């Protein structure tokens, strides 16, 4: 189900602990789609490396209910996007924001809470996790082919979002200049890694939500 990430189950993986509410999300999806006729809608790459369909799912028997929108809107999935498959993200982000405001599903569990960009020590504990991170961009700077969004004064320790050259082309296509984000309050989603402090690599514009320009 492209565009979403539901809480993960072990699925036979040794040592993998189920994420909170994973069973609830699985049960909701099963109740909705098992035994139903569905239509698949494609908005980008159609299959992944495992030959799985990358599609939006619409149920024939429920007035075309959009499965992704339902799961995100009920708080049992969050938005998870890719640079080569970005259809319907505005609607999904809006549904996610409403579910978060209403305190539905995963948004009641601290595991999924939106993290603060500062101080960086707490984010450093989330290395290897997919997170939503909010903070104000202290400095937006282009160095070579990359743009760095720094959220603190000490770039070797503080949280940073890194936008590579390939991603900058997508930013240009959408009219969003990442250098103009200096001073803005933003929310960034992605996998946290550790290179000179916690950071997220941004591969497409929808990973950044502008909450306030100044």
TrEMBL record:
Domain TNase-like: 1-109
UniProt xrefs under InterPro entries: SNase_OB-fold_sf (IPR035437), Staphylococal_nuclease_OB-fold (IPR016071)
Gene Ontology MF, one: endonuclease activity
Superkingdom, taxonomy of origin: Bacteria
Listed transmembrane segments: none
Keyword annotations: Endonuclease, Hydrolase, Nuclease
PANTHER family: EBNA2 BINDING PROTEIN P100, SERINE_THREONINE-PROTEIN KINASE 31
Name of the protein in its database record: Thermonuclease family protein
């Amino acid at each position: 189900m492209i565009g979403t990430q539901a809480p993960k189950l072990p699925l036979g993986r040794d040592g993998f602990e189920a994420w909170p509410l994973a069973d609830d999300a699985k049960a909701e999806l099963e109740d909705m789609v098992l035994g139903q006729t569905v239509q698949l809608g494609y908005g980008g790459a159609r299959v992944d490396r495992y030959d799985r369909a990358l599609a939006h799912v619409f149920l024939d028997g429920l007035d075309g209910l959009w499965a992704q929108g339902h799961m995100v809107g009920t708080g049992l999935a969050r938005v998870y996007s890719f640079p080569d498959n970005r259809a319907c993200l505005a609607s999904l982000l809006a549904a996610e924001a409403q579910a978060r405001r209403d305190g539905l599903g995963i948004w009641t569990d601290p595991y999924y809470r939106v993290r603060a960009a500062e101080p960086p020590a707490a984010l450093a504990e989330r290395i290897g996790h997919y997170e939503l991170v909010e903070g104000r961009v202290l400095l937006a700077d282009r160095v070579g082919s990359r743009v760095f969004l720094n959220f603190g004064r000490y770039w070797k320790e503080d949280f940073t979002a890194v936008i590579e050259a390939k991603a900058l082309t997508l930013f240009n296509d959408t009219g969003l200049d990442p250098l103009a984000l200096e001073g803005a309050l933003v929310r960034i989603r992605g996998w946290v890694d550790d290179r000179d402090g916690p950071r997220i690599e941004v591969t497409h514009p929808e990973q950044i939500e502008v909450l306030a320009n100044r």
